[in-house]
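User: Please fill in residues for this 158-position structure.
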C-alpha cells in the first residue's frame, strides 16, 4: 500500500533551517528524530501522555508526537540539542546534574525542555506549582524530588 506523496518542508530546528522531504502524516517527533537526525528528543508512549517528546515551539512546550511536522513550517522549534549555549550548559541542565535529577536519563531531555519553558512562563513559584506544571512529564525511575529541586534552583534569581 502506497502512502501520501512526500513533500519538501523547511523546519527551523534550534535556529537552523532544515529542508526535509516527508510525507504529510509524519509527526514533528519523527521529523526531528528520523529526518533531521536529532535523537535527543525521545519517543516514549507516542500518545502524548509521558512527555518524553517535549520540545518548544515558539517558546511553548508541546508533545511533538501529537502534531504533524508540516504544521510547523514557520515556527521556531527548540529541542534538547538547542538548550545549551555552546559549551555552556543552560541553568536547568546544570541544576539537573547538581541535584542528580535523573537515573536512566530517558525522560531527562523532555523534562529539561519542559522545565526551561515553564521557567520562562514564570510558573516555578513553589514545589506544588512545579509538580503541577511538570505533571505531563513522567519519570519511571522516580526522580521527582530531585527534578523539582533542580527546577526550583534553576528558577532562583541570579
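Assistant: Residues filled in for all 158 positions:
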Amino acid at each position: 500500500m502506497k502512502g501520501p506523496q512526500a513533500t519538501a518542508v523547511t523546519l527551523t530546528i534550534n535556529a537552523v533551517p532544515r529542508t526535509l522531504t516527508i510525507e504529510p502524516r509524519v509527526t514533528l517527533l519523527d521529523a526531528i528524530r528520523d529526518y533531521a537526525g536529532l535523537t535527543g528528543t525521545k519517543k516514549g508512549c507516542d500518545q502524548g501522555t509521558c512527555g518524553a517528546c517535549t520540545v518548544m515551539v515558539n517558546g511553548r512546550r508541546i508533545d511533538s508526537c501529537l502534531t504533524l511536522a508540516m504544521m510547523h513550517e514557520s515556527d521556531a522549534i527548540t529541542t534538547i540539542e538547542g538548550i545549551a549555549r555552546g559549551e555552556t550548559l543552560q541553568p536547568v541542565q546544570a541544576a539537573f546534574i547538581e541535584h542528580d535529577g535523573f537515573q536512566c536519563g530517558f525522560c531527562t531531555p523532555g523534562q529539561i525542555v519542559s522545565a526551561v519553558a515553564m521557567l520562562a512562563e514564570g510558573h516555578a513559584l513553589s514545589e506544588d506549582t512545579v509538580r503541577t506544571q511538570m505533571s505531563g512529564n513522567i519519570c519511571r525511575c522516580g526522580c521527582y524530588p530531585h527534578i523539582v529541586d533542580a527546577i526550583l534552583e534553576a528558577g532562583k534569581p541570579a
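For context: The beta strands are 7-13, 16-22, 54-57, 60-63, 76-78.
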